[in-house]
Amino acid sequence: MNPEMNLSAGNGRQTVIPLTFAQSYHYPVCFTRDLFHINNQTLMEALGAETRSGAPKTLVFMDDGLIDPSSGLLSRITLWFEHYKDIFHLVRDPEIFPGGEGVKNSWDHVHRATRIMNDSGMDRHGLILALGGGALLDMAGFASAIFHRGIRLIRIPTTTLAQNDAGIGVKNGINQYGRKNCIGTFYLPAAVINDFDFLKTLSFDHFIGGVAEAFKIALIRDSDFFSFLENHSALLKQRDQHAIEETIERCAALHLEHIAGSGDAFETGSSRPLDYGHWSAHKIEMLSGFSLGHGQAVSIGIALDSVYAWHRALISRTELDRILTALIRCGLPVWSPYLERRDGAGRLEIENGLEEFRQHLGGRLTFTMPAGIGQACELHEMDFDRVREGISFLKNLGSVSGASDREAVKPV
Question: Tell me: the pLDDT tens digits for 390-410?
Answer without folding.
Answer: 999 999 986 444 444 444 565
